[in-house]
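Fold it.
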Amino acid sequence: MNNRAKERKEKFLAAKAAGKVGSDKNKKFRLYFVESGDIVCITLSDEIVPKPGWKTATFPQEQLEEVSRLGTSNYLVEEGAQYKTNYRIMQKEQLVHEYKVADDFVTKIDTVPETTDFDICCRLTNDAFTVELSPTAQAFYNDTDLTDLAVIKGSSLLVFYITANNNPYIMLQTIKIPLPELIEKPMQVIKTNSNYSGCSVYTHKLFDKYCVMEAESYD
């Protein structure tokens, strides 16, 4: 055995005796993020010194392993809807305009108390997104062949973008509902992939009146 190989072996044996070899298996990931929700660091190291403005919280290790494997740029951290110290990791989704409509801009749907003055009403609960078409809007299509002619401003598809609160650039989930299906069944309930209560909803404004009903109005 040459001197270099002998030196490497001695260092390995010394590290093993000190309990350093294989110790990463027992370590837990720690994640750091900033006020905007962007993740700035995920590490197994105990030697990381957080920079000013960095925050951390307790998250399931399985979720942190996924973030580490897939990359922090695919996720963000958001405050829970009820408690400022309750954080959750959410997966981003890129905003892609897949459907041509009269207006390419998305509009934030206002959150309102209980109301019946709407064409489209949305609701966000802890596990579902609900879209309701008003009786007045539904009646407009009474004589329409739902399979072919049900359109609004040239589109037969309603697209809703669930985003971080007041931030359309941080996409969380996209919901697509064919207009004929909504006319035929004017209350559509879609399971979401996370708890998005307290998040914002944006859409291409096809109908005149949209709203997001406040949670306390239908709990």
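Confidence is low (pLDDT under 50) at residues 19-23, 95-103.
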